[in-house]
Amino acid sequence: MKTSSTAVKICGLNDLASTDAAVANGASYVGLNFYSPSPRAVTPEQARELSRHIPAEVKKVGLFVDPDDALLQSVLAQVPLDLIQPHGSESPARVGAIKTLTGLPVLKAIKVADASDLDGADAYDGVADMLLFDAKAPKDLAHALPGGNGLVFDWTLLTHRHWQQPWMLSGGLDASNVAQAVGIAGARAVDVSSGVERAPGAKDPAAIKAFLDAVKAL
Hints:
Elements: E1 7-10, H1 16-24, E2 29-33, H2 44-51, E3 59-64, H3 69-76, E4 83-86, H4 92-102, E5 107-112, H5 115-121, E6 130-135, E7 167-169, H6 178-185, E8 189-192, E9 197-199, E10 202-203, H7 205-216
Parallel strand pairs: 1-2, 1-8, 2-3, 3-4, 5-6, 6-7
Antiparallel strand pairs: 9-10
Helix pairs in contact: 1-7
């Protein structure tokens, strides 16, 4: 199998067929969404069952939105996560507290609309273990979610930017644009959710394979 130097995270997995497709086609990370309003949300019980089909070399990432300690502890008591992804308005101090509480590395999502949002990412340098840059939903977008809205931001904002920790590119990626996105932003890792779905929350195994094949071709 041809491999790529660009790592891929398939996020919002909630069924066995899509989980198997992500693993079989070379995903480095899989995301399990514990934000209950999301159409991609899974219960700890569902996530635990899916985790049994994910080999150790594929990192299991738990997505949370402004979680309290009780939720984190409840999920981790049932699901063997490898990373925590805070995808809300968590402050650097809260990110540090989540790391201490869970004992796991943290992938902090930063929502981007313009360059000032990237300036705000500097506050997480040395606190988060990885950063994830996602498109910020406009205030007038109906039924907007914290992530997974299929929106793209200006990838040139990331050109020549540097942080202490590695980072992922997210937001509106799919098999047709991921090569261009990586080329412009210089991303070494990418994250996709809505771009491999046939409907919100319904992953398409064929689209997952197509996305991973597009990244392998880079």
